[in-house]
Amino acid sequence: GISGGGWGGQGELMSDTNHHPTWSGSGSSGAWSPTVEATASTFPRPITLPPEQRRKGLLLYVLQPDTAPELREGLAEVIARYSERFVPPTGEGAGTAMPITFHRYSSSTAGDRGGSSGGEDFEKDNTDASGGSSRGGGDRQHRNQHHRGGGRKVKCVVDSTGALRVYFSHRADAFRALGRLMVAAHNAPFGTKPGAQAALASGMQFEETPWLEFMGVQLDCSRGGVPHVAALQDWAVQLSLYGFNALLLYMEDVYEVQGETFFGYMRGRYSKAELAQVGRVAAAVGVEVIPAIQALGHLEQILHWPANDKYRDTPNVLLVGEEDGHDLLERMMAAATEPLGARRIHLGLDETFGLGQGRYREKRCGTKKKIGCGPTPEASLIYEEHVQRVLDIARGLGLRPAIYTDMIFRFGGGGAGTAGGDGKGDGEAAYRDPSVLLKPDTIARVNAALGEEGLDLVYWDYSSSNKDEYIAQLQRHEPLVSGNNTADGQRGLMMSLGLWTWNRFWAALHWAMATMEAGVAAAQEAGVPGIYVTAW
Predict the structure, then answer these.
(1) Which residues of 27-47 are buried (b: 16+ CB within 10 A; e: fewer)?
(2) Which residues of 394-405 are buried (b: 16+ CB within 10 A; e: fewer)?
(3) Which of 54, 105, 290, 371 is least enclosed, having the fewest CB within 10 Å?
């Protein structure tokens, strides 16, 4: 419904006109102005159908959001990209459209009670235009027995005149409601005239209480083509209309780092100004942009340059325990987060196979292993020491870090080269087998390395279609989630599921849907408050 041509929807839904960079609106708030980049939107242009063949539906008229001024820029971005769905902010043709106003729940709102920040009395709207109560029942109570959703909720009320009032608690939820209204308006029967009955018949009155606090998509900006800035902005806007509140940008080397000439060299890296442009549009529609970098493995694009020999352990793993590497990581974290205004960062730390088997060993035993040199420390110990240092760096920059957990279980379960640092095996069995539990001494060491400050642990699994398998794996994380906490919520647990886009031109949807449906069901049952899907 929202998608339009090229994103999986019907081509005629998209406008065949260019986005307008400015609008003049009435009201005390002045004109709305979408960003200049909206005129360079990369939404694919569909085949234009004759007007008589286009689906018309109902138009929407977003009134100047004086009751929720924080939405003004984001609404302009949406309307610029979907101008055929809206009456322009000047109000021309408003009599043929469904008017919408937005109202934020007040801080004193409890459950469904309370007012809006714009002075509107929310309690007056608890009885909808159809005469029935819009308060939630058993279904919502069932959803909330698992999660509070971070206090997220949204409600759209149709009044007797047909006007739509959206009440929201978070900016992202306001745009989720708008996306739902856009679909409902578009799917309204032919010839439908605006009004209360049309709105009710089209499903424009609803209430949602999301059980997920964090719902995101991670785009791979490092393998294959580097997405244009306008494409990332379009993604952010579209994701907001579907209810997502996070966009992770996976960037191994495609961003500027002070003093590092070969970061993203000849690869289309993002400048600081470009990342700032992405962050600005995403923030306007309630989407948090989180840089996802690598702080140990998967760094072959950086380490293959001779100028970066000093950072290299193996061809794709950073040399740990060196101040040069620590300085590089600090500059990487700052460079990735500052332009976006990000408060969180994903540090990766996954699939660090061969850790300690290259220059790390050479520096301790010489180029050729000397008699009596003995083994290097077990890879698990090397890894834990590095994790502690990396997390300290991130927290020193005021960031909440996230890390993948696969290597904790691969190393800690006896795989991935733990036996004297011999580098044999990848620990797959230890990672996949839920019966292989971490030993108490390993749990104590890992908890000490993870520290007592805020941290998100990310369990990734793209291959299982069995809910119970996911739940069993999530339960293995409990000693780490609850360990060393100084306060509730210091450590969080998230799930990363896969869109199955790797090694193919399109998503393998049969696998993607099977694994994601099982994973989401497991997350809800296990009480995991955050999920994101990866498009590697």
Answers:
(1) eeeeebbbbebbeebbbebbe
(2) beeeebbbbbbb
(3) 371
